[in-house]
Amino acid sequence: MMLHKKNVLQEIVVGDNHLRIEIKEKKHFSAFHDINVPYCYYPKDFPTYKLQTNEQTEFGQRLRINKSETTYMPHDITDLTVDLIYETEHRFRIRIYDTIYKRYEVPLEVPVITKKTNQTDYDVKINSNPFSLLITRKSTGVTLFDSSVSPLIFADQFIKFSTRLSSPYVYGLGEHRQALLIDLTEKWKKLTFWSRDFPPVENTNLYGVHPFHINPEFNRDNSTNFHGQFFLNSNAMDIDLQPLPALTYTTIGGIIDLYIFTGPTIQNVIEQYWDIIGKPIMPPFWSLGFHLCRYGYNSIENMLATVKRMDDANFPYDVQWTDIDAMSSYLDFTYDEKNFHGLPDFVRNLQANGKHYVNIIDPGISSVQSPGSYLPYEEGLRKNIFMKKFNSTELILGKVWPGITAFPDFTNPNATDWWTNISSIFHDIVPFDGMWIDMNEPSSFIDGSSDGCTMNNLDNPPFIPNVLGGSLSSKTLCPSAQQYLSQHYNLHSKFTAHWTGDNRATFDDMYFSIPAILNFNMFGITHVGADICGFGLETTEELCTRWMQLGAFYPFMRNHNDLGQKDQDPGSFSYAAQQSMKQALLMRYSLVPFWYTRHYEAAMLSRTIIQPLFFEYPNDRNTYNIDQQFLIGRALLVSPNLKTETTSINAYIPSDVWYEFPSGIRVEKVGTFINLDAPLSKINVHVRGGFIIPMQIPGDNLIIGRGNPFTLLVVQSQWGNANGNLFWDDGDSIDSIETKTYNYLEFSLMNGTTLRIDALVTNYQDRPMRLELVKILGVNKTVTNVNINGKSYTNFLYNIFDQILLIYGLELDMLTQSIQTIQWTMTN
Q: Where in the numbering of this chain does the Glycosyl hydrolase family 31 C-terminal domain appear (predicted)?
């Protein structure tokens, strides 16, 4: 932003340690070329708030702060209330708002705490003049929040406050295309938040808004704690980071509603954050399979040919999608009866063979069809659910694929009935299994509306964050558009879920998919993936093979590409490429019981499904910037080849017990980077000692394979123990967890000789859960005999060279007894 002072560029950010640098002319800073580095700092006499009253309350403290002078922003609010809410032992909340007038607040249902917790692991100190807050960890004294580094500014459309960071390492702050680690060592960085439909590129605000970050604390004893912050605000904002290290929030509306999560472990921080935003949903079982889509099938014949190619090549796959080319004139809730004739029967045939179908819906509803001819629009008008112009009953109209469109206001309670009804009517015609909601930022092909925007301060605020296009209305609706709850200015950055967007067929895009998926798991959107092989540009066989191998270990696995590009379904490539892709797919399908259980733990226990290495090895600083490898749960380490024309990778193997998957060969060199063979036919996966992985023999798709036998991969730790679990239900009911209509089993290896199966919940009795094979890794002595539930069993093999014990042909129903054991005896 600019101050009205000649020759002065006034981008206000955090000052240095003592706020000692006065405003300087731009020419004095000509050495700086990075636009993120500020040219000037706050002067010492900048207007600041002072503490007036401090009232003890049931929830903590309520403060009144005010100031006598205003700042450079219009409509400065001089009288503020500050609520300090001691919510839990590990969660502290700061709310700062206008004392006199009610302001917009994010309509997210969060825990309401009315009574202060009795015990905290944080201390709170209040500085009176100038007003600031200092939050520290009791056990170490480390700073968790310190607003003294910069004055608080609170104007009607400009709120800015800052905090010191505990270290220059930051994680989170999405959605942006960037590496996993934001390293502020000698680096400034600006991140902008305002939902935008734009192919992922760096230094640009993208589809989602997640103002949550994690900051490590490096203790003197070489241990590491973690804490997090969540700024609950949905207005457009910038977050500036600097090497002090410090962070500055700048938002153009709402209030300050900041949560501090004190961890102290990384998993604790995630749990504390998800307690506020909500846990992930449990996805349907079939959605864990392979999904296939493209924009540009163009006809039912081309899509049938794709399905036949996949089936003829014996690829497991579960879900067929269609894009907007399957619609009639791009109209939502229709299909093209000429080019996609017989689509309803095509879908029913898929379903009869165990597959599923997903169609696309864009929120833009055509408003220019003949009266009475287009039910979604007519019903929307009748229920009054479309967004309107500012202070008007007239609809605000944009332009999307079908032309001029109206946009549903999903904050309107009537919109739920409208959506349910028109979806049900379309489902009666085309019995889709899932729905893909696209362009719901909302995205428009024009800026603002078909009639432009107003000149008011919502459409032309005094400060605009560094959004793509330079305007809040760029390729979306006018911020002044009226919704049921508030103006679009406040509601644009919504509460939603999505995939990582319209990427491109490049090796760089493949790499950036990993930090994106890692970040979304932190943000609570765990069932996430990238467009495999790339959406835009034409892929290559090498890239698509590598990406299919990597994508087999995304939580959500979909191959998708753009109009005009060649086919990139696995069946369209050479036989050699198909075999490499198929091997990765079979690995994924064999691990589906493990995947499904991870989703259960995400929904119930706030566990991330995909996570960075430092989550499990927080005291190993070698892991802090690793984002070309990742963990599935705590047990599987995936190390893809992300470089073209290479046949090896340099991967980090943490100091632990690791075995190659699926061969079971132990890795000898750990705690260091090692070179691994990575020819085009292979993706490197390792399994960690101390875990038991439930697996299943794959079928042609997940529905066909549901009745197949299970296997257990038992991976001993250095102490000879291991643990695992398995959640299993019908895979489709939305209330199986609430009604306990599921099975839950726990597995434990004790003393390297006894495997115990505990069937703790056995309420889903649709069919037996047959255990066929147990594979135990790390058996370092010859096995002489095996007992199953106390009875001798002779179907076993011991590989002395690789130290692997196979117990096969079991046919053991894991549900018939609450406790079952498999024991083996070894030579001394």
A: 608-693
pLDDT at 44: 83
Could you say which architecture CATH assigns to the domain 50-277?
Sandwich (2.60)
Report the range of poorest mean pLDDT among 34-43, 413-422, 675-684: 34-43
Burial 484-495 (b: 16+ CB within 10 A, else e): bebbbbbbbbee
Distance spanning both ends of the chain, measured CA to CA: 76
- 441: annotated active-site residue: yes
Strands of 50-56's sheet, edge to edge?
Answer: 50-56, 60-66, 79-88, 91-98, 256-261, 224-231, 210-218, 169-174, 182-183
> 175, 257, 318, 438: which one is catalytic?
438
pTM: 0.94
Question: pLDDT tens for residues 331-389?
Answer: 999 999 999 999 999 999 999 999 999 999 999 999 999 999 999 999 999 999 999 99
Give the mean pLDDT of 810-814.
97
Kindly report whether the peptide bond that precedes residue 264 is cis, defined as omega within 30 degrees of 0: yes
pLDDT digits (tens, 9 = 90+) for 650-666: 999 999 999 999 999 99
| Averaged pLDDT, 637-652 | 98
- Annotated active-site residue in 323, 441, 459, 616: 441
Q: Provide Rg for the chain, Cα atoms.
A: 28
pLDDT of residue 11: 34
The domain limits of the chain are 50-277, 362-494, 591-826
DSSP per residue, 24-52: --GGGGTT---TTS-S----TT----EEE
Please give the structure tokens belonging to residue 817: 């007894």
Q: How many CB atoms lie within 10 A of CB 54?
A: 14
User: How is residue 824 written in tokens?
Assistant: 């083996």
Report H helices in 384-487.
414-429
Cα angle value 263/264/267 (rounded, 5°): 60
42 secondary structure, DSSP code: -
Catalytic annotation on 660? Answer: no
Superfamily of domain 362-494: Glycosidases (3.20.20.80)
What letter represents residue 438's amino acid? D
The pairing of beta strand 319-321 with beta strand 290-292? parallel
Q: Which residue has the tokens 């069809």?
A: 369
Q: Please check whether the two domains, 50-277 and 591-826, share a CATH topology.
A: yes
232-241 residues labelled b (16+ CB within 10 A) or e (exposed)? bbbbbbbbbb
What pLDDT, on the 0 to 100 scale, is given for residue 9? 28
591-826 is classed CATH 3.30.300.30:
no
Angle (nearest 5°) at CA 458 between 455 and 460: 50
Q: 33 pLDDT exceeds 60? A: no
Cβ neighbors of 18 (< 8 A, separation 6 or more) are none
Of residues 307, 302, 340, the one with CA closest to residue 701: 307
